[in-house]
Each structure stands twice: as C-alpha cells, then as structure tokens.
Design brief:
Length: 438
C-alpha cells in the first residue's frame, strides 16, 4: 500500500466528537484505511510513505460546496446590490452572453484554486462549457457533480430543445470522468426559466439515463407566485408532478417553502442546498433550515456563484447558515454549530451522492487540515464551535482529495496559483470590455 498518514492532529469524527488521532490513507485506492486514536493500545501501524503534519490542527472532512456556478468568479464584484431578477436580466445574463469556453475555463480554474485553498474538496456546478469545467476538475484533483444549466425562456423551440439536449448529453458523456471523481446531473435552471414541456421531457430522459436532477427552486417569492397563480399548486408539487423529486435529486435554495412542501421534500428524499450568503445578498429571504432538518430533509450548503456571495469559502457559509437559521427560527438554539458542520460535510456529500464527508475507515480520503494556532481561534474550548463561528478558509493548511495532496502548507500543488490568478483577471477584464462595447 502507498500510505499517506495525517499525524499529530485532532480529528473530527462522523458523530461530531473530536479525538487525537492519526489518519492513514491508501493513496492508490483514495480511501481512508484507519483512524487510530493516539491512546489506542496494540501494535503501532507501519511507517507511511509520506506524512502530513497536523499538530496543533483539526482534521476535518473536505468541505462540500453543493451549489455554485464556479466560472462566475470572473463576475465577482461585477454587479452588486440588486434583487435576483434584475440582477440576472440586466447584468449577469448579458455578461454571460459574452463568455467564451476559454473564459469559463479560466474562471473555473480560479474557483478551483479558491476552493482548494479554503478546504473544499467537492462541489456541484451548474454552468455551460462544462467540458472545460471537467478539465479543470481533473487537473485540480477535486471531485464534482457537473451539469449544463438549461434556460428556455426567451428562446425559440429549436434553441430551447437544443439546450435541453446539451444538458442531457453533458450528463451522459462526462459521468465518470477524471477517474470517476466527476459525476453529472441534468440541470434545468429553475421551474420558471424552463418551460413545462422541456422540463417534462428532460426529467424523463434524465431518469432513463440514471442521472439526478438539480435546479434552483423556491428561491424568491417572485418565482413562487407565478407558479401558484398559473398552476394552482406550489413549486415542489409541480416538481413532483414533473417527476423531479427523488433521493438522488437536490434543489438549490428552498427559501420559500410552505404548504406541505417540506414534507414532500422529506418524503421523497430530495435534498436542499441552502445558500445563505446568496439569499441575504439578493434579499431572497430566509430558508427554514431548522424546520427542514427537523422534517428529515438532507440539507447541504452552497456558496452559489461568486457574483452573489462574493467568495467560494464554505467556512463563511457555515457561519452564515447558523446565524441566519437562528434569525429565521427566531430561536438562538436553532441551527447549532454541529448542524452546520454536518451540512458542510456529510450533508453535502449525501446531497450530491458523492463519496466523502466523513473521516472513518473505508471513506473516501477527502479532508482538510485546519490550523488552530491563530489569535481568532484561541482558546479552543470547542473545536466544532470554531469551525462554525470563528475559522476561515485561510486557516486551512492542507487539502487532500481522493488520497492526493492538493495543498500542502498552503501551497497548492495541482495548480500554478499565480498564473491562474493572472489569467483569470485578464480574462475578466477582456470580458467586461466586450460587454461594454456589445
Ligand atoms: N444555458 C443557460 C445557462 C444557465 S447556467 C446557470 C445560470 O444560473 C445563474 N445564476 C447564478 N446564481 C443564481 C441564483 O441565485 N439564482 C438563479 N440563477 C442564478 C447563472 O448566472 C447562470 O446564468 C443559458 O442559456 O443561459
Ligand atoms: Zn445558483
């Protein structure tokens, strides 16, 4: 066995406890083979081929960013301080109309760099030029569930159908890429931006192909009302009617859910990806995270795109989810630290149907090592509290995915950080010039 050992740290276990332990990884298999408490009796395991020092640090499952549009890093700070609909129509969609596949690759590379540097090992991405995003995922060493986002409003039937076909083709062709670190989904943008016949056909074909469905649902009140007005049913009932609810499916946002929708999500096993920063920034509303969890819905965390966040740091998302969840429930004991840590790890992996999210023997070797030796993390009464409320992405020392070291002592090994930043900044500035002259 080609063994990597993460030594000298404290390890966050799946039950939420933290113990001093060494984690041994089979690098070829990309699996954790042993989590050994330092107090354990018995024979010490053989030397590893390589070690990662975790002294003074906390070893956690790699974080999962369960909803983003990763190439939107190029539009970070491009248009702020507007509600969802005008923001998309007046600013974001016109800019995206000028985005080339090269731009998507440059933006995805920047996003991958940012995620590795903040301890994220897996993400779900809805965008276009997904073959380029897949190349980046492969090079960066990350894990992802990828899909081409479909929008049919404002398109003629032929263009709309082609967009649906593209999403299905991407879902079929990229599944299993990057040594199986890439999985896929059919990704209609939302229940209001994709017409009913296209949703119906696309979901049916996705089922035949055995790929999950991912879409934006119940994000704003403006998006729920027309569905209720036109159909006399709420969006989650509509989604159920379309065949889009199931244990492999995961919906972004779920802010305005009511009238039996939470139970429908729970009963069908459909996961919800909570995106608190995006929901606050676009003033979309407060998702009932505590109620969703109490009903048994799998809740994950997502940053959404960098243009509505404005970063891809899942530590921020944990804190925002805890804070906003309390406000939404009008209860300071709602959405506690352990809950948001679970949402960012096991909840994310489960929502996306990807391995990882737990540090235990047999699990995928996806982890992050968080340096606790910092003023803002002193003293350490409770490491889980620190993860939720005080730590930042920049506290991550090492990132490991599928048994490979992606970052060691804050140096990213799979990407040339300076070149990626320079390239993305140049692509973003050219893009804005094109938009201005369009
Ligand atoms: N093929 C589609 C592209 C859809 S990709 C997914 C889209 O979601 C957009 N998006 C980003 N954040 C949000 C959000 O919070 N709600 C809804 N859409 C968003 C993003 O800008 C992108 O246009 C087309 O022809 O336009
Ligand atoms: Zn989104």
């Amino acid at each position: 066995m080609n063994a990597l050992r993460v030594t000298g740290g404290r390890v966050l276990r799946p039950d939420g406890s933290v113990t001093e332990a060494d984690v041994t990884i089979d690098r070829d298999a990309g699996r954790i083979v042993e989590v050994r408490d330092v107090s354990a009796d018995g024979e010490a395991p053989p030397d590893a081929d390589e070690t990662l020092d975790a002294s003074g640090s906390l070893v956690i499952p790699g974080l999962v960013n369960a909803h983003t549009h990763v190439a939107m890093t190029l539009l970070r700070g491009y248009a702020d301080d507007k509600p969802l609909d005008p923001w998309l129509r007046e600013d974001i969609w016109p800019a995206e109309a000028e985005l080339t596949p090269d731009d998507v690759e440059a933006g995805a590379e920047l996003g991958a760099l940012e995620m590795i540097r903040s301890g994220t090992t897996a993400f779900a991405d809805m965008y276009f030029a997904m073959d380029r995003v897949a190349d980046v995922v492969d090079r960066a060493g990350l894990r992802a569930r990828l899909g081409h986002g479909v929008v049919t409003v404002g398109k003629d039937a032929a263009d709309a159908r082609a967009d649906v076909e593209e999403s299905l083709a991407v879902a079929r062709e990229l599944d299993g890429a990057a040594d199986s670190r890439i999985r896929t989904a059919f990704m209609p943008h939302s229940l209001t931006t994709v017409g009913e016949e296209f949703l119906r056909e696309g979901v049916a074909e996705a089922r035949e192909a055995g790929v999950p469905v991912h879409l934006h649902a119940n994000e704003t009140a403006d998006e729920v009302d027309p569905i209720v007005d036109e159909r006399g049913e709420r969006p989650i009932a509509y989604a159920e009617d379309l065949g889009a609810l199931g244990p492999d499916d995961f919906f972004a946002h779920g802010v305005h859910v009511g009238g039996g929708e939470i139970d429908r999500l729970a009963e069908s096993g459909t996961a919800v990806v909570h995106c608190p920063a995006s929901n606050m920034k676009l003033a979309s509303g407060m998702a009932p995270v505590q109620r969703l969890r109490e009903a048994g819905v799998t809740v994950a965390l997502g940053t959404d795109g960098a243009a509505s966040n404005n970063d891809l740091d899942v530590f921020d998302e944990m804190r925002d989810a805890a804070m906003l969840g309390k406000l939404a429930a009008d209860d300071a004991s709602a959405v506690p630290a352990g809950a948001v840590v679970e949402m960012a790890t096991a909840g994310g992996a489960d929502a996306l149907g990807l391995p990882g999210g737990r540090i235990e023997a047999g699990a995928a070797a996806d982890l992050a090592v968080v340096d606790l030796d910092a003023p803002h993390l002193t003293p350490v009464h409770d490491p889980v509290s620190h993860l939720a409320y005080a730590a930042r992405g920049s506290d991550v020392r090492h990132t490991v995915c599928d048994g490979d070291i992606l970052m060691r002592d804050r140096e990213v090994l799979t990407l040339d950080a300076a070149a990626v930043q320079e390239h993305a900044a140049a692509a973003a500035s050219d893009l804005v010039d094109r938009v201005d002259s369009a």
